[in-house]
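DM from R.C. (forwarded with permission)

"hey, sorry to bug you on a friday — could you get me a structure for this? deadline for the figure draft is monday and I only need the backbone to look sensible"
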Amino acid sequence: MRTSTPVSTISYNTDEFLTNMLNTLMYERIIEFWIYINHIPESDEKGKYHKHLYFIPSGLIDTFVLSQRFEEFDLLNPDKPPLACKVFRHSSFVDWYLYALHDKDYLAKKCNREVNYTYTEDDFVMSDELYFCELKHQSDFSKYKNVNKFRSAINSGLSFRELAKNGFVPIQQINQWEKFFNLMRYGDEFLQKEVAENDEYVYKPMSGGGGSFQGVPFMGTRGEPAQGELLYNDFDHFTDRGGEIHTMYPVYDDALPFDVDSEIEKNPPKN
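My reply, with the result:
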């Protein structure tokens, strides 16, 4: 692959060999920044200690040619193939950084994966700390911070309805966020739960509805829906189980009855 964009790979090299090679590539002006972290193998991996490596080329590179320079004679196993790197791939810094730390919010949202080991920035080995700080400053972590805030709100005891009323749940993704809510609160048993004991009601998609908004829930402008479910009629109205008709509108921040951050402060997450 010929590229000039940032790439990442998994390396099985020794620390001494890897840092010397990376510094050599910087001296030759082939790359302008590098960073890696040592990882302990997880239970679903092949049992090899490895490094997650990320670097930024200073110009056009051929990753196939470059990968050959990372082949290292294995002194402990001279009869085996050399230590080396896996295939180089294009990579965004945000994705590499969060995966390298085994950030729980990132893994939950992106990979649907749980791990036994997590890491800190002290575990990074890098060529330039100022360059690293600038990369972080320019990166957008907001979509994964929202997951962390959502988890904190759940641990504080807020119900899914309260989170939805606070505009915390994107209308277009309400089914996915509800599934995440139930998974965080009830664990694997949530699939068997139709109604949560501590919530006012649990969202349950119903047949019917109109247009492209079919099955998308809105909150009523008056009255309270009956416990358990909402019955949808059309784009403008819904009828609760008691037969009362409500005007429908999307819930945004200007309709919030309270602030999620203050609720989390008053009810800190329960570990």
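R.C.: lifesaver. The CA atoms of residues 58 and 185 lie 47 Å apart.
me: no worries. DSSP finds nine helices and eleven strands in the chain.
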